[in-house]
Amino acid sequence: MEQLFNVLRLPPTVPRVALVTGGARRIGRAFVAMLAEQGCAVAIHCHKSTQAADELAHELHQHGHQACVLRADLSSEGETATLMAKAHAALGGPVGILINNASVFERDEWHSATRQSWDRHLEPNLRAPFVLSQGLASGLAQAPEGRRSGLVINVLDQRVWNLTPHFVSYTVAKSALWTLTRTLALALAPSVRVNAVGPGPVLPAAGQGEGHFKRMCDNTPLRHGASPHEVAQAALALCCLPGVTGQMLAIDGGQHLNWGPPA
Q: Oxidoreductase as a keyword (predicted)?
């Protein structure tokens, strides 16, 4: 019988050079580890978490993986636009895999949102992923024949399927990125596939107490959230399935099915 189910592997036509924004900590670190295990040279982008990024790169080097650290403020398009070329130069080839993980997550409401809070979310959470996706597609167009396929994974949020009245600027940015995911899946096909993951409760947010986080997890249908490793596994699955583009996989314990404020 033909062997149908193998360990997931990246397509051979995708250059094994990856860029992960916000790759030093939390879910981003899991993405970096997953890509390194898949044989990719990984550019670890950071803004303020320079020490954590350097330590992660050092750890990867000790295990025989190729990695570099790239620092940029994604709220500055001038800095964002340099990342693809820097990754290419540091790692010796065009970026074939982009994970747009970095984002700003701050609470505002309809009555408290300002132009400043709006811009603080829209630029890094929406504009930067678009600029980087443009850079990936342009770079691959110059790659050798047979190595021009690319993969983009946008990190969204389960709330794009389950809107709430809170975190207005953040939610607008992530919802727009979900639309951009599907738009670019059409525009960049067939050479580049664009998909997304939508985490729910994975790790406590800054300022969120453990008790509140636990109640949020307990309030999901599965009574638990997900781990960073699970989110990275979901991204890998999307990367390795050649017939999938323009999709989002929610890794949220089913939170998108019945959101409600924790008791």
A: yes
What is the 3 state secondary structure string of 62-102?
Answer: HCCCCEEEEECCCCCHHHHCCHHHHHHHHHCCCCCEEEECC
Active site residue 170: yes
Whether residue 263 has pLDDT greater than 50: no
Which of the residues 130, 170, 178, 259 is marked catalytic? 170
Q: In the chain, where are the structural domains located?
A: 17-257
pLDDT band with cut points at 50, 70 and 90 for residue 5 = low
CATH fold of 17-257: Rossmann fold (3.40.50)
Q: Is the peptide bond before 201 cis (omega within 30 degrees of 0)?
A: no
> Could you identify the residue written with the tokens 């408290």?
112
- Mean local confidence (pLDDT), 197-212: 83
- The conformational region for residue 135 under phi > 0 = left, psi -120 to 50 = alpha, else beta, is alpha
